[in-house]
Amino acid sequence: MKSFTLDVTPGICGFTCRIESTSNDKKNARIAITGSECSMIQELAETLTEVSFQDIFVPLTRNQIFLKAEQAGCHLACPVPMAVVKASETALVLALPKDVT
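Above: the chain sequence. Below: its structure as tokens.
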């Protein structure tokens, strides 16, 4: 099992976090979002613990990652949900690991 870690510095809010993604089967990625002092990201972390291969290809308006971010009250421009997509893609071997700024 490979594990990938992303450190996210979202911007002016200053609420950094860490996203860890792991996968055993290339069908589902376990997601752990930790270290954020943002109550919305903390709520997202509680509800979003797994992303499936299919979730990566669902349009934004029906994508569970973005729907859960919306339900948690995340700001529209918050980069954490997109970072979850990137972490999931890497764990599911749909993308190679590469730093993003």
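The beta strands are 2-8, 17-23, 28-34, 50-52.
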